[in-house]
Amino acid sequence: MTEPLIYEISASGRIGVNLPQCDVPESELPSELMRDELALPEVSELQVVRHFTRLSQRNFGIDTTFYPLGSCTMKYNPRLNEDVARYDGFAKLHPLTDEAGAQGALALMYQLQTWLAELSGFSRVSLMPAAGAHGELAGILMIRKYHADRGDTKRTKILVPNSAHGTNPATVTMAGFEAVELPSDENGDVDLEALRAACDDTVAGMMITVPSTLGVFEDQILEVIEAVHACGGLMYMDGANMNALMGIVKPGELGFDVMHYNLHKTFSTPHGGGGPGSGAVGVNEKLLPYLPGPIVDIVEAPQAEEAAPLYGWVMPEKSIGRVKAFHGNFGMHIRAYAYIRAYGGEGLKAVSEHAVLNANYIRVKLHEAYHVPYDRICAHEFVLEGRFKGVDEVHALDISKRLIDYGFHPPTNYFPLIVHEALMIEPTETEDKVTLDAFIDAMLHIAKEAHENPELLRSAPHEAPVSRVDEVRAAKQLVLCCQPALPQAETD
Amino acid sequence: MGYLPHTDAEREEMLSAIGVKSMADLFEAVPASHRFPSLNMPEPLSEMEVAAELQALSEANEHAGDFALFRGAGAYHHFVPSIVNHIIQRGEFLTAYTPYQPEVSQGTLQAIFEYQSMMCALLGLDAANASHYDGATSLAEAVTMALSVTKGKRKKIILSHAIHPQYREVVRTYHQGRDVRIVGDGGRADIADLVDMLDENTAMLAVQYPNFFGQIDDLRGLAEKVHAVGALFVIVTNPMALGLFKSPGELGADIAVGEGQPLGISLGFGGPYLGFFATRQKYVRKIAGRIIGETVDADGHRAFVMTLRPREQDIRRDKATSNICTNQGLMALAAAVYLSAMGKNGLRKVAELNYHKAHYTADEIDKLNGFEVVRDKPFFNEFIVRCPVPVEQVNAHLIEQGIIGGYDLGQDYAHLQDHMLVCVTETNSRAEIDAFVSALAELQK
Amino acid sequence: MGKWKTPDDLKYTESDEWIRVEGDTATIGITDYAQTQLNDIVYVELPDVGDTFDKDGVFGSIESVKAAADLHLPVGGEVVAVNDGLEDDPEVINADPYGNGWIIKIKIADASELDSLMDAAAYAKLCEERD
Question: Among the CATH numbers 3.40.50.300, 2.40.50.100, 3.40.50.720, 3.60.15.10, which is that of C11-111?
């Protein structure tokens, strides 16, 4: 069953919202500047509610389904956080309110900056970036400006392991550097010899994910950091996997110079079907003056002992500048604040411990039926191969689609690129053992089906709102909107 | 504690299945010298306590629930129909990820396809993407696209000074590592002056419509001049104004970008908002970010899927059109619900209310001695007022009376000291407007 | 004969382009091996006639649903023709990579650059090795 498009249930003259009468005298409209037509749908309020509610039922979400999507940290999104983010004092607060009138919001942001810095051992955090990739751009631009300010202009390269998220090399190019790809060794860690050979005075820095995208702690991470620092480069940590690190290790103490946090992963702000997120960046003393701003600081100490200080906006001295209008995705800051407050420090450590516990539990239950390359104690996620000896026609994608029939969202497919037919599984800490056991059972069943009836996998899913989607057709016959033909531009 | 479901017995069972004795054993690969640091963090709170603390923080702000708000400057207090927040809090939308698996993401995919369709209608262009972080980053991505369309051979970007100052800052931040010159916005150059700057090295020219001062420039004929030198014409726009005024497509724009916040998204102290981005069909492969396309499933039924994927970072890595790998999905959904509910008639009606109320307010302010509305161009829901005293002083006076006054333009424009940018929307009642004007009257000279 | 067609009258690059020389001009496309690796081709980005590129220069790109590859010029030269038919019908490269699926024609700048290219036997061996 398909749901019609909103345009297909439109009828001329229908209205979905009651609007007030105009209570002031009307002014003349400048007719030569007015548009003639506006092709929006015309539907009733109930039609809108029913349409979008039905659409929602054609989705999997954490609320309905276990969602072990590696690298994405699909943990429970507390509903309290949705409520507090909608309090009038936040939701109806104008971003250009004078500092004196926004002390509650500024206090919240200041506190969140401080907690995030403490959790990962950095000096200061900027909450400006709106997503992980946005934080990466800010981080690499800071590295660029740091070297430029020292007159060190021959540094044109950033090292990136071949296991990296695609955002890393894409960020490097955006920031005006050349990405140099490093090979991995037989353990899936950075090849130290290749790294040392690549380190010279043209290297501006290195981007690396910890724990690695294979879901393991690289036990040689200190040597990696030292090698890059020794040649004058700075270390960027991709914080996508921070859910394994809280209370376990502080990246700043390991020697990283800058990293981004994904508030939408580690700190449970909902993914919303692909955003909004928040990609705060933390730095050590070296990069402190370069943070994207403005950031919140105390601009006047408290007048009396119990009184609050005065918070205000400060632009760091040599800032790379503004990466976004206003102050970042403040709504995500509120949710992350509430999340940290609910757990406290010890609780956040327990979050990371249980995330790692859950991942290892699934790993040991599956590593006989599936090949797990780099099979050792993993962090909060691990990668297995979605293929079977003697059953060439079954691919990772088929296993993924078959999982849908069992009521589970598929793991991440085909990443990292250094594992063949990769399936990356990240259960997160909020899943209970009963759910994990059910998922394990489904995976074991599917492994059996792959040998006995591969076609069952190849033609899956059988129980989803739609069967396999034709992506080739979508790319060839581009249909990107359902609008009737548009009036031609006057200037064409 | 918090949201962890494990019982002690389950934890023991799981540890033993893994073959370790304790949680600590799971972390032996972490360098021992840095393992298990101390954390100077607060104690946990219960749900009730968290709510109370955040309530107190929220109440320490001066907001549009308690104050009459006459400030815009890129963020607007509009009425949001109840259904918007109900729909976007449906768990199946709220707690889903990027729709990589189309068979279990048809809800998100179709909703975003409908968002793209309605934005195309509003903007008068052929193809919209699934959105960027906000209006400012959308403009920065338009620059990237213009450089790419002109194959890296052109290095000059012309921006009008009447584009939001923060947007221009963001463009400069994004492109500081690239060989590109951003010009045009240093002084008070008007559109005719910008046209004089066009040359064979120009990749794009961008203007804002209505501009940062709320004014509607007559852009007819400008596109031909930009196209004559082979550059792209970019319009930064306010979607609410497009309920009334000619679309960027009709005005010949190659790219339209802007802030979608007026379409059903609350002020929220500046985010999350919605950066919309639309262009002409011939440029779709140069767009950064997610795009949803229509197709069919194996049984021939209509279905939706992310398309044009090879532009993106996970496939093309260092050669991708951008590093972006999300959109503002839930905010795009909010805009889709808003535009559906408002529809063709509702959006025009709201835009008219904004226009009439802003003009009524301007007329009343013009009657005051010492205040003068700048009227050299038509305006939508914002306008410039020259004040007899510094704007800071005006606003300090207004806040005493429960009114948040306009934006102080002197902060960004040296020639606009003592000039206030006043915004009036459908949410401002006549009583509020009259109180605002009366309060200003007390400052007459 | 291997798994993939490698006509004897062509020269080949390590990045899987072929070149057919006819006097001082040449026709260029991607190999049978390359089109198999990419699978369903959905788009080809073409240069403009008159553009010039050095040997190994990127003159365009080719996309399938889930992969993309740059196109490298086997020898330096000026583009004298592009296959406009690919705009609406890129899958012709899958069907006929050495015929109707040609991509551009160039005027060769320096014929000596042809010497560094592989012949059919060497290229066929390279394909086998990578399989």
Answer: 2.40.50.100
Query: Which chains form contacts with chain C, at 3 or more CB pairs under 8 Å?
Result: A, B
List, for residues A80-133, the tens digit of each pLDDT value.
Answer: 999 999 999 999 999 999 999 999 999 999 999 999 999 999 999 999 999 999
Q: What is the distance in angstroms between the Cα of C18 and the nearest Cα belonging to chain B? A: 23
Rounded distance between C-alpha atoms, residue B120 and residue B35, angstroms: 53
Does the beta carbon of C91 lie under 8 angstroms from any beta carbon of chain A?
Answer: yes
CA distance A375 to A380: 14
Three-state SS at A243 = helix
pLDDT higher than 70, residue A487: no
The H or E element containing residue A310 is strand A310-314
pLDDT of residue B1: 66
- C51: closest chain B residue by CA: B151
Query: Mind listing the pLDDT tens digit for each residue in A159-181?
Result: 999 989 999 999 999 999 999 99
Q: Count residue pairs from A and B with Cβ separation < 8 A.
A: 728
Kindly list the structural domains of chain B, giving each domain's residue range(s) and its CATH number in brackets, ordered by start: 68-80+344-441 (3.90.1150.10), 82-338 (3.40.640.10)
CB atoms within 10 A of CB A4: 12
Cα separation, B148 vs B254, in Å, equals: 14
For residue A476, list chain C residues with Cβ-Cβ distance below 8 A.
42, 90-91
Residue A363 has pLDDT above 90, yes or no: yes
- CATH code of A351-476, in short, is 3.90.1150.10
Q: Does C58 touch chain B (CB under 8 A)?
A: no
More confident residue, A479 or B404: B404
A479 vs B295: CB contact, 8 Å cut-off?
A: yes
**To which H or E segment does residue B395 belong?**
helix B391-400
Q: Does B247 touch chain A (CB under 8 A)?
A: yes
What average pLDDT does the structure give for chain A?
94
